[in-house]
């Protein structure tokens, strides 16, 4: 992409309505525009990151054997009357009436709808286990939408639903989700810690939330500092292997880690030596639930079991806050000059800065670099505008591309360009083709 032809409405001023870094930076970097409270347009740069996050979610869901689909945003109230949640959900639900006076709603979640789909088409235990998911916009009329995409009213969520014959199989689905989420967040450059939580309006007994530690997080968290040393890394998981998934779950959840609603100070003190006790704040980027037959029983989602009996299926649901993740990643990775994207989610892989637009050698070298980077399967953002060098650097730093290649007449005389890391600020001079090779190596395995 050439910046001269792109739509990147960066703001010079710090927007006064933004209280936290991620919100400020998303506005300043021209990623989002507020349309009404808690409702945002995704401008091209923001939309690119959103799509990369979605892509990682899809890939990791596929790896775990889950099946993608898409349900509508608008739902019929009748479905929610069946589960009893239409009245119970309260003012957070956006209720709509159509021209025939039918009660509709903008879905805050999809347990009812997926249960309806399941009961319409599945009737044998032979079709189980099954996990369906989608990535779709949700609406929750939050009392206090704030912090930009972090607590929106309209937001993008990945929500998945498992259907299993037995409690044991449903617990495997739970464990499998926990493991696949660990890997999903790590690919986004995040450490998201699974913590025991409360289930709220989704219901059920077992639930873990995934929290990214950040001072601006809305949840208070209590944990054993040893947890932060765990990484998922390159381990290979057979997601069908119950014992293996359970072992990983135990590894990541056996130490104390709770959100404030389940925290118990006495237990904390008994289980964790004082020097390892941490009290901090966190951003909830996902949650998994097991709720058994809470929806399948009232809504008649049953299968015939091997003995010929009709039994309600065991279910759980699992959510990832896709749009919230942009805020969480920025909270975890920025400095006073701007965003620092982890390689896995960056909107462009490298910025090319031409220090002297109009200089024949510099223009030609930039064009050749642009072609070579593209040829290597990477997406460059080439600042081919007439801005002065300082302004170009400021924009690149603000939008946070992890790598920058700087091209100027002086370096070219010696046959070199400069490759700079956004994270460390370190620069290295090298011939242009070597810079491309280096980038290809950096991104290998991260895309
Ligand atoms: N049906 C279940 C699981 S699929 C569910 O709705 N779970 S949830 O309520 O925990 O939401 C899942 C994730 O969506 C949360 O962990 C959070 O990351 C994100 N989320 C929830 N509310 C908002 C909001 N108002 N703005 C942005 N993200 C949100």
From TrEMBL:
Keywords: Aminoacyl-tRNA synthetase, ATP-binding, Cytoplasm, Ligase, Nucleotide-binding, Protein biosynthesis. One of its GO terms (molecular function) is ATP binding. Residues 38-342 form the Aminoacyl-transfer RNA synthetases class-II family profile domain. It catalyses: tRNA(Pro) + L-proline + ATP = L-prolyl-tRNA(Pro) + AMP + diphosphate. It is an enzyme of class 6 (ligase). InterPro entries: aa-tRNA-synt_IIb (IPR002314), aa-tRNA-synth_II (IPR006195), aa-tRNA-synth_II/BPL/LPL (IPR045864), Anticodon-bd (IPR004154), Anticodon-bd_dom_sf (IPR036621), Pro-tRNA-ligase_IIa (IPR002316), Pro-tRNA-synth_IIa_bac-type (IPR004500), Pro-tRNA_synthetase (IPR050062). It holds the Pfam family tRNA-synt_2b. One of its GO terms (cellular component) is cytosol. It comes from the Bacteria. It is found in: Cytoplasm. CDD domains: ProRS_anticodon_short, ProRS_core_prok. The keyword Metal-binding does not apply. Its EC number is 6.1.1.15. GO terms for biological process: prolyl-tRNA aminoacylation. Belongs to the class-II aminoacyl-tRNA synthetase family. ProS type 2 subfamily. Catalyzes the attachment of proline to tRNA(Pro) in a two-step reaction: proline is first activated by ATP to form Pro-AMP and then transferred to the acceptor end of tRNA(Pro). Homodimer. PANTHER family: MITOCHONDRIAL RIBOSOME PROTEIN L39/PROLYL-TRNA LIGASE FAMILY MEMBER, PROLINE--TRNA LIGASE. This is Proline--tRNA ligase. The lineage of its organism: Bacteria, Pseudomonadati, Pseudomonadota, Alphaproteobacteria, Rhodobacterales. The gene is proS.
């Amino acid at each position: 992409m050439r910046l001269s032809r792109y739509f990147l409405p960066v703001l010079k001023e710090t927007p006064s309505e933004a209280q936290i870094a991620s919100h400020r930076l998303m506005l300043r970097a021209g990623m989002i525009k507020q349309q009404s409270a808690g409702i945002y347009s995704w401008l091209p740069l923001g939309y690119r990151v959103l799509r990369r996050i979605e892509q990682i979610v899809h890939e990791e869901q596929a790896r775990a054997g889950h099946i993608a689909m898409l349900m509508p945003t608008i739902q019929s109230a009748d479905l929610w009357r069946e589960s009893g949640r239409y009245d119970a959900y309260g003012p957070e639900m956006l209720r709509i009436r159509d021209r025939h006076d039918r009660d509709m709603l903008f879905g805050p979640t999809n347990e009812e709808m997926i249960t309806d789909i399941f009961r319409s088409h599945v009737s044998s235990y032979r079709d189980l286990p099954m996990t369906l998911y989608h990535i779709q916009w949700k609406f929750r009329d939050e009392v206090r939408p704030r912090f930009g995409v972090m607590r929106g009213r309209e937001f993008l969520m990945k929500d998945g639903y498992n259907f299993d014959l037995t409690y044991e199989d449903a617990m495997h689905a739970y464990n499998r989700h926990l493991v696949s989420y660990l890997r999903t967040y790590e690919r986004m450059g995040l450490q998201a810690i699974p913590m025991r939580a409360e289930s709220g309006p989704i219901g059920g007994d077992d639930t873990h939330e995934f929290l990214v530690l950040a001072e601006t997080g809305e949840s208070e968290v209590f944990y054993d500092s040893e947890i932060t040393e765990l990484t998922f890394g390159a381990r290979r998981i057979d997601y069908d292997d119950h014992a293996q998934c359970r072992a990983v779950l135990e590894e990541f959840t056996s130490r104390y880690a709770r959100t404030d609603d389940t925290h118990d100070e006495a237990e904390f003190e008994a289980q964790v030596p004082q020097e390892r006790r941490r009290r901090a704040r966190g951003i909830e980027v996902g949650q998994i639930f097991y709720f058994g037959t809470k929806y399948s029983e009232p809504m008649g989602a049953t299968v015939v079991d091997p003995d010929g009996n009709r039994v309600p299926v065991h279910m759980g649901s699992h959510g990832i806050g896709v749009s919230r993740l942009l805020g969480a990643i920025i909270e975890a990775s920025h400095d006073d000059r701007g965003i620092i994207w982890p390689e896995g989610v960056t909107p462009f892989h490298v910025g090319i800065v031409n220090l002297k637009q109009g200089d024949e050698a510099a223009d030609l070298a930039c064009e050749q670099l642009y072609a070579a980077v593209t040829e290597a399967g990477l997406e460059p953002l080439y600042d081919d505008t007439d801005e002065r060098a300082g302004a170009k650097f400021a924009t690149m730093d603000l939008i946070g591309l992890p790598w920058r290649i700087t091209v100027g007449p002086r370096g070219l005389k010696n046959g070199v360009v400069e490759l700079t890391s956004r994270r460390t600020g370190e620069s290295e001079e090298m011939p242009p083709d070597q810079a491309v090779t280096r980038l290809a190596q950096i991104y290998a395995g991260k895309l």
